[in-house]
């Protein structure tokens, strides 16, 4: 049994894919469940929202890792969360029968960092796509993304130019690195802060349908 708590919303009928959404700092597995319904209004996909494993005495909610510096997760807590998520993703693929290439990993803020980490790790199966809201490709000692073997992976990146928590430059850098490696990247930038911009939701819905179409 996996160590992470999570919520699950089955598809209506045969699922056309798996959507795993990783929440941001200080929330829990309930936070992005409604957003999953927004992204997948027809309930074509099997939706899962995990809860981060870390709690802190001076901060509410749950966290994926400690933050000594934005963009640079604490290595020990990052590796612990990475291992727990890898175990959960493997269990979901086995239990649902939905393979990695019919899976989209997504999230918000540090949940986006974990989506990048699991989706771009050289030792992990490549998903169909990454939904990256207000996040970054993490820089962690001992971990490096594998972009050269992820040519078929699609990415949707959205960020606010006025984000006071995670600078938009980190999203621009992630997009540029993926594009330079030959990945297909759809990039959206708005005038908002550290939140999911409503203007980015319709294109995200279209992107998700294109990444996980009804035809397997």
CATH class: Alpha Beta
Oligomer class: single chain
CATH homologous superfamily (4th level) name: Alpha/Beta hydrolase fold, catalytic domain
**How does the major sheet shape up?**
7 strands, mixed
* Count of individual domains: 1
Strand order, sheet with most strands: 1-3-2-6-7-8-9
The CATH architecture comes to 3-Layer(aba) Sandwich
The residue ranges in which pLDDT falls below 50 over 5 or more consecutive positions are none
DSSP strand (E) fraction? Answer: 15-25%
Would you write up a description of this structure?
The protein has 216 residues and is α/β, with parallel strands linked by helices. The chain has a single domain (33-211), classed as 3-Layer(aba) Sandwich (Rossmann fold), CATH 3.40.50. The chain is built from five helices and nine strands; from the N terminus they run E-E-H-E-E-E-H-E-H-E-E-H-E-H. It has helices at 33-39, 75-96, 110-120, 168-180, 201-211, and strands at 6-9, 18-22, 46-50, 54-56, 59-63, 103-108, 129-133, 154-160, 184-190. The strands form two sheets. A seven-stranded mixed sheet has the order 1-3-2-6-7-8-9, sandwiched between helices. The longest helix has 22 residues, at 75-96.
Provide key terms for this protein.
two-stranded antiparallel ribbon; 30% helix; seven-stranded mixed β-sheet; 5 helices; Rossmann fold; alpha/beta; 9 strands; 216 residues; globular
Helices and strands in order, then pairings?
Layout: E1 6-9, E2 18-22, H1 33-39, E3 46-50, E4 54-56, E5 59-63, H2 75-96, E6 103-108, H3 110-120, E7 129-133, E8 154-160, H4 168-180, E9 184-190, H5 201-211
Parallel strand pairs: 2-3, 2-6, 6-7, 7-8, 8-9
Antiparallel strand pairs: 1-3, 4-5
């Amino acid at each position: 049994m996996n160590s992470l708590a999570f919520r699950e919303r089955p598809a209506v009928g045969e699922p056309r894919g798996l959507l795993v959404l990783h929440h941001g700092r200080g929330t829990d597995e309930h936070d992005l469940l409604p957003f999953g319904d927004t992204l997948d209004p027809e309930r074509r996909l099997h939706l899962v929202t995990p809860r981060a494993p870390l709690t802190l005495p001076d901060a509410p909610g749950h966290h994926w890792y400690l933050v000594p510096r934005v963009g640079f997760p604490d290595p020990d807590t990052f590796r612990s969360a990475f291992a727990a998520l890898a175990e959960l993703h493997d269990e979901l693929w086995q239990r649902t029968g939905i393979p990695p290439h019919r899976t989209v990993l997504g999230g918000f803020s540090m949940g986006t960092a974990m989506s990048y980490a699991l989706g771009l790790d050289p030792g992990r199966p490549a998903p169909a796509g990454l939904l990256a809201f207000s996040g970054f490709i993490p820089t962690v000692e001992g971990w490096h993304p594998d972009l050269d073997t992820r040519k078929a992976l699609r990415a949707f990146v959205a960020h606010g130019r006025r984000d006071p928590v995670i600078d938009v430059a980190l999203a621009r850098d992630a997009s540029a690195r993926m594009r330079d490696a030959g990945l297909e990247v759809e990039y959206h930038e708005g005038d908002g802060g550290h939140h999911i911009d409503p203007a980015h939701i319709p294109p995200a819905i279209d992107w998700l349908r294109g990444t996980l179409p009804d035809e397997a």
